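Handoff note, outgoing to incoming analyst
You'll be picking up this chain. Sequence as last confirmed:
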Amino acid sequence: MAESLILSFFSVQPDNSYVFSGFANFVKLFTDSDTAPRFWGALKNNVLFFIIHMLVQNPIGLLLASLLVTKGKARGFYRTVLFMPTVLSVVIIGFIWQLILNPLWGVAESMMRAAGLGKLFQPWLGLPQYALPAVALISVWQFIGIPMILFYTALIGIPDELIEAAVVDGCTETQAFWQIKFPLILPTIGIVSILTFVGNFNAFDLIYTMKGAFAGPAYSTDIMGTLFYRTFFGQQLQLGNPTMGATVATMMFLIILTGVLIYMFLFQRRVKTYQL
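Most recent structure output, in case you need it:
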């Protein structure tokens, strides 16, 4: 990683030698007419990718964990089924969902038509305005088991005596969840949030599997990971540039580091103060 950071301060000469160029690569990444639109577009898409996971994956994971905590004979079965997509290969997930959503021979349209929703079907993966949300929701479906298990572990660790005492005092189940359980699992919520942030700004494999290195259509699914891959290794007629690729990787590192530091020095301290 240190060598990658150092490489971002060099530039490649025509004779393939490396010359120290300071912050020239970063200036080019931010302002050049060719590279800047791709960088800012990938960053915007990455932020949207992260927001979808935060607003969809984590709340549903918390809901599923809350349902699993309730006593039931099939609890172990449902827990296994919901976690199963997480252990599958990303390549398999991408290939299967491409087949499902294919407008020519996919089953999504026929299933929606059978449910009376046929008019709502769109070739989501082929439309720029829908491609990124569609891939993000597929990612949510695959990895929802991780926050679910973490929330489930935190919830079963809460003593039953606390909930029973609250019920005796006239507290409903909903009130007991938000006033007792939720504050007690705030540390887990923080961990899940920061894991989601780091995972999403390191994302690459699902988009590469489904949309390729160019993250089509029209770069609408391009994120920092695919931008780094395309910049460093090149693709088709685009030649690879190791120093610019290292610059993109450095920006990914700085973004993730900033998010982690904000979590550690703001959220985590507030949670500890709240608990005390």
